[in-house]
């Protein structure tokens, strides 16, 4: 592997600029004549707009213009769309209501954009926004998914009667019902998956620049996938044709899914730039982020898991209601369907599975993919159910899992997925050893002596990453292909630029992708630059989400490198008068195997560009492009164990230890992988113990609109993690990579809740706040007269 | 934030004069609440009179058992004062738990006491220590000073210059932080001195910081964590919000009181 190649713990090339405040984010961009936008937003969860008066706002100091949704509509800007078609089980297409970038006649959540003010400064734009008068006729609002489906609930979109977007199913219902009927034991449980706000460190921002001379638009934006943004804004929102629209996503400070989607603001800033003749920049503030960034999770599910007399799972039936908020965000329909129910087999051989999923509109901000996207919901459901089943059956949670593990691969589940490789036993064993599982009873007894309730819990997760085979997802309703592209440009002196369609917003691609090139060609890491995030520089690409950059993005680079190597070898063979098949590339040199003939890499590159002495008929230059379409998903899996101690006086949970044993396939940079796991665990622990978006269920006001009320995990909420890897290389891509970005957030919540319920002996919902744990303990134990 | 004029006062007299010269002027003493409120556009003072550079309002003096903390003294200065730690470590402990390091190096005791946030830490210490709030025009006893959430005995333009108190024999503070904000979900300060025992609670009461007379009586009779157990704390006086129920806060008052007594020794 060398000091800098695959497998080396190379410090991130990005660190210097990020750690010294030298990153260049969208809000750092300054262009001549740039002005600032502020959005007028709905203070109501649901209301008809009966009038908008902007005359006072237009007269305010510094104001250039105030634009509303009618003008936007008149200019032919289209509605926002969901790009993944789901059909209900009756065959009808999903019922998508209109989402106008600026609301025209109805607002459907607190924060819905109504008008844009463009002014010389943010403060002046905001001052003017405050005097825009909007007349509303308030309508009753509905916040929870269950309430939205009840008869008589407020109707949110005329297109979706009863607020039902689709009623979808997967699996074999009859076989599952039969298994349940014949079961020796059925575990039934209701599962709530709490609603989360993504909270990237950098809030969303957009800068729209219209060049009248060229009739050309440039959009700087906080995107995980600038090419997808350009495609969607061109093809569906009618902002500009693709050749007239450049999208640049520079440094982006975290996304976690929330920056996949195209939001109203970037569309409106681009349009407003043409309308006003000035570049228009908008930057979200933190409360605006809570109000308008797509949320995650928010599932309510009922589960039945059937066992035979030998404790083998024979059937799993799931009924889920998923809250999609006020509008269908870009991939919102895929999250609770193909990214969720297809993982309900978990690590287990389950002969019959059936899931029914209803998605509903509510008067809340749209819900879409958030770190893990469907897979955390599936894992939480399955691993909580397994834990409850083990307790009901009186067997150890580890044994119940082991008994049901899938042990031979490939394995076809009843819910589409075909697992290609894995060793679930290895991770379970490693995790139990690392956690000293067998020593737990003694630790529990010791804690009891100190008045503390100690619990231990595990979670065996699987996820589908490296999304995704384009033909397969196309057949399931995806509106795009999910391949990736790469271009490897060798310069005349041998330095290298790699242009990738993946987008780095914290993942460290500039380092790991360069490690791959350094490993393959034996060149110094410093001679390799990674270029991404600009549609004018980089060929079409699909971006970064779903732990796909390694498995898919790097595979595209491998394909391009293969072509570069092939051409370089041809040149070297020609120059050294050897046979092409005898050329090997080692330590930055091209050698004739078995001889002392060598050419340094840079001389071969130089030869390609001087073109003075190339093989007959060869084109000059050394630059190759590749598109890689994966043949399958990848299936990272692992076992997480949490051990907690609860203070019964306050209900506070302390995480004593957290063990993560993961199978990510081959690893490029272990340090970056560990960082990804740490971050994922922090988010999963946040979901389990702290985080929850709450709206007032009558008014629809967002109650958790700042960090005063939305509890993000802090460093002192987290233990030092014990990590290990039990890697089985992925057979489905050339590097054997599975992906690691989401595992921590997927596997950790059930491990924690299993540990907490083990400690307190009663069920609890996430987040297990001190208040809820204390209340659970009060309900579980007769209250003592004198404490 | 709306436009505002910033003034840096160098004396108490200058500060009071600047404040009274504008109808919508406010004192700024660290601004850890005020600036955030202004950024949200929920406050719009025309002028800010910064107190953190008034020399006579800064610093800690300990003479025998008599303590004087200048109103413009930061939480970090209180937390790290060895003189104060020698006579009343509980208040150093309390100051070290406020906010985060940034807040502790900007926020001041005078600012906190003047704002009287129902979940702030200092009001419980001031009340339990039977401290005196010294202003530019008078001295106010703690019992008279705190009058409800964000409500104090301060008159328009009146400026806190110092907090003084007699160091207690024993004192302790225990806080259960709000998981989100880290303000006190419930914080209890207990103090024992020659004149008796005082127990003050912040974060929990529906009307701001308050004393728990039953706990004071129980601890006067028997200064021990066990004696807290026998007392019933009335949940009906507790605040209810999305973070805690009145029952939970009433429970936390007892649990934190016990821990405060244990910490006091």
Number of helices of chain A: 20
Strand count of chain B: 14
CATH architecture of the largest domain in chain B: 2-Layer Sandwich
Q: Tell me the greatest interface.
A: A-B, 27 and 22 residues
Compute the CA-based radius of gyration of chain B.
18 Å
Level-1 CATH class name of the largest domain in chain B: Alpha Beta
Tally the structural domains of chain A.
3
Rg estimate of chain A, integer Å:
27 Å
Instruction: Give unreliable regions of chain A as ranges.
Output: 783-787
The CATH topology of the largest domain in chain A is what?
Answer: Aldehyde Oxidoreductase, domain 4
Helical residue percent of chain B?
25-40%
- N/C terminus separation of chain B: 47 Å
Describe this structure in words.
The complex is a heterodimer of chains A (787) and B (265). Chain A is an alpha+beta fold. Chain A is globular, with a radius of gyration of 27 Å. Chain A has 20 helices and 28 strands. Chain A starts with 14 loop residues before the first helix and ends in a 7-residue tail after the last helix. In chain A, the strands form 7 sheets. In chain A, strands 3-5-1-12-9-10-11 form a 7-stranded mixed β-sheet, sandwiched between helices. In chain A, strands 7-15-14-13-8 form a 5-stranded mixed β-sheet, with helices on both faces. Chain A has 3 domains: 31-139 and 201-254 and 259-292, Aldehyde Oxidoreductase, domain 3 (Alpha-Beta Complex); 299-467 and 632-780, Aldehyde Oxidoreductase, domain 4, CATH 3.30.365.10; 483-628, Aldehyde Oxidoreductase, domain 4, CATH 3.30.365.10. In chain A, helix 15 (509-521) links the parallel strand 20 (496-500) and strand 21 (528-531). In chain A, helix 10 (375-393) packs parallel to helix 19 (743-760), helix 15 (509-521) runs parallel beside helix 16 and helix 18 crosses helix 19. Chain B is an alpha+beta fold and 265 residues long. Chain B folds into 2 domains: 5-50, Uridine Diphospho-n-acetylenolpyruvylglucosamine Reductase, domain 2; 57-264, 2-Layer Sandwich (Uridine Diphospho-n-acetylenolpyruvylglucosamine Reductase, domain 3), CATH 3.30.465. Helix content of chain B is 34%, strand content 25%. Chain B has 12 helices and 14 strands. In chain B, the strands form 4 sheets. In chain B, strands 4-5-10-6-7 form a 5-stranded antiparallel β-sheet. In chain B, strand 12 and strand 13 (196-202) form a beta hairpin. The mean pLDDT of chain B is 97. The A-B interface holds A 123, 126-127, 287, 649-652, 689-690, 694, 703-704, 707-712, 769-771, 774-775, 778, 786-787 and B 1-3, 40-41, 176, 179-181, 183, 229-230, 242-245, 247-248, 251-252, 254-255. Chain B: InterPro entries: CO_DH_flav_C, CO_DH_flav_C_dom_sf, Diverse_Substr_Oxidored, FAD-bd_PCMH, FAD-bd_PCMH-like_sf, FAD-bd_PCMH_sub1, FAD-bd_PCMH_sub2, Mopterin_DH_FAD-bd. Chain B: Pfam families: FAD_binding_5. Chain B: Residues 1-170 form the FAD-binding PCMH-type domain.
